[in-house]
């Protein structure tokens, strides 16, 4: 996970019970960085070295693509849990 933004949209407390609505926005990229290509396991595979070069060589410039997930969930329970 490259980035996450978590927002508490609402919170209702009634006695010992609560109900919260939480929004999650998460982003990740599908690309290689220096740590990936220098990893001893990955660097054994030629495909990772090629992918790294394609991603960074200005002539090609294949940039990593971004995956974004947005979801809102309700969480409920008791204060003493």
Automatic annotation (TrEMBL):
<dbReference type="Pfam" id="PF11692">
    <property type="entry name" value="DUF3289"/>
</dbReference>
<dbReference type="InterPro" id="IPR017483">
    <property type="entry name" value="CHP03034"/>
</dbReference>
<protein>
    <recommendedName>
        <fullName>DUF3289 domain-containing protein</fullName>
    </recommendedName>
</protein>
């Amino acid at each position: 996970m490259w980035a996450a933004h978590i927002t508490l949209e609402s919170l209702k407390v009634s006695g010992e019970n609560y109900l919260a609505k939480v929004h999650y926005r998460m982003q990740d990229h599908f690309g290689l960085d220096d740590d990936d290509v220098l990893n001893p396991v990955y660097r054994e595979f030629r495909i990772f070295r090629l992918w790294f070069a394609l991603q960074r060589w200005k002539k090609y410039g294949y940039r990593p693509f971004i995956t974004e997930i947005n979801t809102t969930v309700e969480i409920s329970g008791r204060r003493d849990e």
